[in-house]
Amino acid sequence: MREELNQGLIEYLAASPSPFHATASLARSLQAAGFKPLDERESWITEAGGRYYVTRNDSSIIAFQLGSKPLAEQGLRLVGAHTDSPCLRVKPHPDLQRQGFWQLGVEVYGGALLAPWFDRDLSLAGRVTYSRDGRIESQLIDFKAAIATIPNLAIHLNREANQGWPINAQNELPPIIAQIVGQDGPDFRALLADQLGREHGLVADVVLDFELSFYDTQRAAVIGLNGEFIAGARLDNLLSCYAGLQALLATDADENCVLVCTDHEEVGSTSLCGADGPFLEQVLRRLMPEEENYQRAINRSLLISADNAHAVHPNYADKHDGNHGPKLNAGPVIKVNSNQRYATSSETAGFFRHLCLENEVPVQSFVTRSDMGCGSTIGPITAGQLGVRTIDIGAPTFAMHSIRELAGSQDLAHLVKVLTAFYSSAELP
């Protein structure tokens, strides 16, 4: 099972170079498993025992299974994750001509580690909006081939490089995509129109706009002398999206189960499709239009917010609290912060720890050093929006927010096992 899950994650990462593609990949898997798509613009007819999903902005998705018992009596078992990862996004007017090269201006999305982006074989993917025969349409594209790179400056010209130097995102990050030949200037929108034709057989009248991200073309892989690790891009947080999906597909219990994977977590989640927006609440209220039933259901529910955790790095062990250094391949990590950067309480942590023990899944804890700041997740945001009890957990990871991250090859199976048990558990606290 472990090898099958790891290979499935590798394939999912390859198919998901952008939040749009990650959401489309989840939707395809859900539909293949019998989940019915719902349209927010239409009336919904749902029934007990039904399985459904809905997307918003093409980059966020909520899937749910309805049990036979009323939501107000049984509550909901929710697993939350996010579809976005730090990256380089193409600017609206990106064309640059410098020293005979065609480059694209980029904006840093989220808290990216910038140095690893240099000297990589990069491609481009995302959503393009265009007009065709008088109609405005959108389509996902993925160049797939390595079309760009950001070369480092040679050590001979930057003798202080190994002592560390600040990277200027405006001047030093524009990827090179071609040499300019002839008199014609670069035209990125024309390039996108050509890609729409090559990839989808579409003839666009005008490319109106786009949301495109560069990504590393090197596939994820199981590595290590004994295959102990998974290395790949976007493990934060597509590993959790994939784990939640596999758990939802594996459950055959008569429970009310929800998987919510939202965009824009890396930039604060405040958007129409982010965790700090109305998406989840609006979906749940359509299922429970009566206010009292909605409030009763929320107070019988529990959310597991799954987002990767910082494993203790052997070269930087002093960056962790001495009693809270999660290890790779040692199970999911309960994340705690007294200042509510994580939403974990003793009640929700106790429930999750008991669930792990009952299902023979190892479990760990993380608290940041008292003299360091702490990141956050969708957990506190969703708890604050809905008033739902929440625990923040995640798979231990190295190099979070790098272009290539590292996780343990056993931890995906651990996470899927406990999330499957959660979806099937008979009692919530």
Automatic annotation (TrEMBL):
Signal peptide, first to last residue: none
One Pfam short name: Peptidase_M18
Record-level Gene Ontology MF annotations: aminopeptidase activity; metallopeptidase activity; zinc ion binding
Residues forming coiled coils: none
Biological processes, Gene Ontology terms: proteolysis
Cofactor(s) it depends on: Zn(2+)
Keywords: Aminopeptidase, Hydrolase, Metal-binding, Metalloprotease, Protease, Zinc
EC number per UniProt: 3.4.11.-
Gene3D superfamilies xrefs: Aminopeptidase i, Domain 2 (2.30.250.10), Zn peptidases (3.40.630.10)
Keyword Metal-binding: yes
GO cellular component assignments: cytoplasm
Binding site for Zn(2+): H82, H156, H401
Name of the top EC class for this enzyme: hydrolase
Family membership noted in the UniProt record: Belongs to the peptidase M18 family.
PANTHER family according to UniProt: ASPARTYL AMINOPEPTIDASE
Protein name: Probable M18 family aminopeptidase 2
Source organism (scientific name): Stutzerimonas nitrititolerans
Gene: apeB
